[in-house]
Amino acid sequence: MLRWELDVSPLISTKSWLKNYGLKKNKLNMYHILPTIGFKLSDDYDTTLKRPVASRYGSSLFQRAFRKDGHTYNLKCSKEKLIQIQNRLKQVLRLFERRLSWLTSESRRTFGVIEEKCVTVVLDIKNLSPQQFNQFIGAFQMVLEEQISRISKFNLIRSADNMKLFKESCVPVTHDTIYEAIEWIKSFDRLEPISSTAPCEAVVQALKDTSNEAVYILTEGTSIDACRGVFIEQLTNSHPCIPVNVVSYNCDNLDTIQYLRRLAECTNGRFHAYAVTMEMVTYDDDAPQNGSNGDSQVLLKRNMYGGMPEGAGIREDVLLLFEEFEEARNTNQFIEDLIKEGDWDPPKKKDEDPKKAARKLARMIQRKESSMGSAEWLKRYGLEANKLEFHDALAKVTFDHVEGVTNSFNAPEGQDKKLVDAIYCETLFPAVRWTDGTIKHVIVTQDIHRTYEQRITIALNRIQERIKWLTKGSRALFGTIIEDNIYILIDCSKSMEENIKFVKEKVQGLIQEQLRHKKSINIVSFGTTVETWSSRLVDITPQSLHSAQSWINALSCTGSTNTYGAIKYALSDSRTDGIYLLTDGCPDQ
């Protein structure tokens, strides 16, 4: 089974998914982009000329773009902004590609997407060949493992003369009930007799359970042909609020497929069709070696290939996502052409008031310091950065110790030259060993010493203030938050019950002191399950901070410690810069 990102694989309709991740939500469609990279061309209706007129002054100054609603925009912005928009579009395109792959693979290809949280599935299998019967069971087993295992409640009914129910009503989804359901469908008798009204009776039985949000019927179609009118009449007269979603499996009769589509539409249900077009046998020789003789096992695999049967049309959920994908690709191409062809130098700004600029710079520096780690801070304000270390401070007041060769008036035997050191400086100038190993003399006057003393005192005071600042408030527990896009993971398992009040107070302080200066945050609590304040990172605003604090105050402790699930959720957000985990011990899942 493939692994899919959390934002790719929600069990919701494409329409709902696009509301969370589409171009409009990300403000990346042409309707939102054009006003940010240009300005609208002025136009009006001239009563004298009795026709619409538009300004022409910018025709030779700006590139122009036309929006679908008829408005024209003069384009003018920086190249950097266009590149930023293009990078965001590329991220969205990659997300759309992954969602398309998810929709058209595995159980979503054969069954569609189960969008409801409580469902009953009617299995209509009528005397298929052994090969087709096994395909049917294998396909639905994949649905159980990949989709039904992620909803809240389910039930199964087999359509037959002697109708078989997995349970009397919908049961909660657990590991045991899913395993029991798989064993139940594997026990089906292929030659079980099925009357012409059995599928209708099974669906009516499913509709009696009012806890259902939807009923699904998985059928190959032949057993329904004999009771078409009765089936539609029964569904129309049954529970009107529960939709019946029809899944056609391996039906090759176009007339039956069209009837099944109408059957779904009469209850406001959805229709999905799938047919196996080819089965390919492959051999896997990468299996573990067998015993001590070292022989490898060769496993036989049957891979099925299929899709929408001829005449069934195109899946609506795939078509809707593909149209959004094409719009994103066209928009990306439009931005790419602008970057290549346009002159995107930013307009010159008027000179800013020097005092106002200085205050703005001071605020930026102060804000920057509060987001620095100690290593970065020392690179800017440490002794080395201010050239206050020993050798840096003395670099301008040193001179070399001189050695040389001189003539000797009383030459020793066998020699007429002798190496001597300068002796005039031995008592005048202190000697120090330099970084390269040489000996140098230094001249330190009172003025030099006084100036250095003042500078080193200022630097040390600044370091001491930084140390005190680091040990106050939220920084004493969390340190300095240096990332801009942050996830806070809070352990809300049963073992945290005694400490949760302390954790809440500290996180509230962290929000007030540090997180309000960041770009975006999200908060995740985890016990047995993972709960989130928001589905993705949320931009920092007074309203979002107030919402986050209220959500934190409402947290309670229960269950085990699913640390992996919380970290996995945070890492699935592509904008995440940093994750802060608050827990009292090791995960137990």
TrEMBL record:
Residues 147-272, 485-589 form the VWFA domain. It comes from the Eukaryota. Pfam families: VWA_3. Signal peptide: none annotated. This is VWFA domain-containing protein. It comes from Lottia gigantea (Giant owl limpet).
